[in-house]
Amino acid sequence: MANNKISMDSIHSLEGARHVLGLSGGKDSAALAVYIKDKYPEIHEKVEYFFSDTGAELQEVYDFLDKLEAYLGKEIIRLSSGKDFDYWLTMHNEYLPSAQQRWCTRQMKIKPFEAFVGDDLVVSYIGIRADENREGYISQKDTIKAVFPFIEDGLVRDDVFQMLDDSVGIPEYYQWRSRSGCYFCFFQRQDEWLGLKRNHPELFERARQYELRLRTKYDWKDGEVPVKGHGYTWSSQGTIDEMVERAEKREKELGIIVTSKKSSEKWQETLKNMMDDDPFDQACLVCSL
């Protein structure tokens, strides 16, 4: 896989290569797009900006992409698997995706990306920062070369926020959520499920109904029996109702409102002072930057 990594200095030697930058609706990939436009305008002219749309994104993500598209002055190409989440859930025997079984990322993000680039020689720009210790998704196809401008130029978290402050702003969902991705993303923490319930109650209820679906298996002794538990809830920690209950209990114990901004500080400043997610706690870079 290391052979698929190249430097910014090397990309000019790849004659005829396509240049692509995947956007998730999150802060890092958006900042990278802004950075490429402002510092490398000759590359910006070549870059195909794209977004892999599952159809299950938050409205705030779509709103932010519209702002970013206007700033870039270029179309952000919307990719799709051509099928909705329910189709892929049926194809995976009603087994909900998880950190161990990320079929949603594979089917609805990675495969549309690899179909988009085909067998073309491609330079893929990835928004890993210099202060991160993770690699994320790098295609194993020899024709797809990954380049990491932030790492090469030494840009860190504060730089990302400054670029966004100076251009398109910070995505609104960061008021209560630490990641981009689908509304039912299984990487959400307990307080983020609570944030979803408070900010998008209709989406929370939709996620809840997936857990409440009747699923059965055949038992030689008892015939069709219901199947519940891990694999049929969004989290191995229990149902989202249980996680919200724990988050609400923690709020009361701490005497704070987890999903609200501090009265003396803008939520954007609060976000800047928070630590990044654990490197393990990531889907893939096509999905979560």
What does this structure look like?
Helices cover 39% and strands 11% of the residues. Strand 2 (47-52), helix 3 and strand 3 (76-79) form a beta-alpha-beta unit. By secondary structure, it is an alpha/beta fold. It has helices at residues 27-39, 41-44, 59-72, 85-91, 103-117, 149-153, 157-165, 190-199, 201-212, 240-254, 267-272, 285-288, and strands at 18-23, 47-52, 76-79, 122-125, 144-147, 216-219, 223-226. It is built from 12 helices and 7 strands. The strands form 2 sheets. It has a 5-stranded parallel β-sheet with strand order 3-2-1-4-5, with helices on both faces.
Describe the protein's topology.
Blueprint: E1 18-23, H1 27-39, H2 41-44, E2 47-52, H3 59-72, E3 76-79, H4 85-91, H5 103-117, E4 122-125, E5 144-147, H6 149-153, H7 157-165, H8 190-199, H9 201-212, E6 216-219, E7 223-226, H10 240-254, H11 267-272, H12 285-288
Parallel strand pairs: 1-2, 1-4, 2-3, 4-5
Antiparallel strand pairs: 6-7
